[in-house]
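Workshop exercise sheet. Pairs work together: one partner reads the sequence aloud, the other fills in the structure field after running the prediction. Swap roles for the next sheet.
Pair: D.N. / O.F.
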Amino acid sequence: MDRVAYQNLRFAVEAEFLNASSNPNADQHTSVNSLMRIFLAALAQQEVQRQRSRREFKTFRRRDDFAVPGWAFKPKADK
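Structure field:
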């Protein structure tokens, strides 16, 4: 989890705690469900980003107009 996503998650959880503690009529079950939704949304977002980066890595294609340096080619072995 990157820094920005972690901070967003932390602030959302902190806001939920403050909301639950400041409201005397707050339902504990509703507060726990809200916290779980926040955590699950953060985990799902992280998984989507991981899958997207993995797909981009696996489907990497070199641009056709890109000139490859000569040292990048292996010389053909003479038999």
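Discussion prompt: Helices lie at 3-22, 28-58. What would you look at next?
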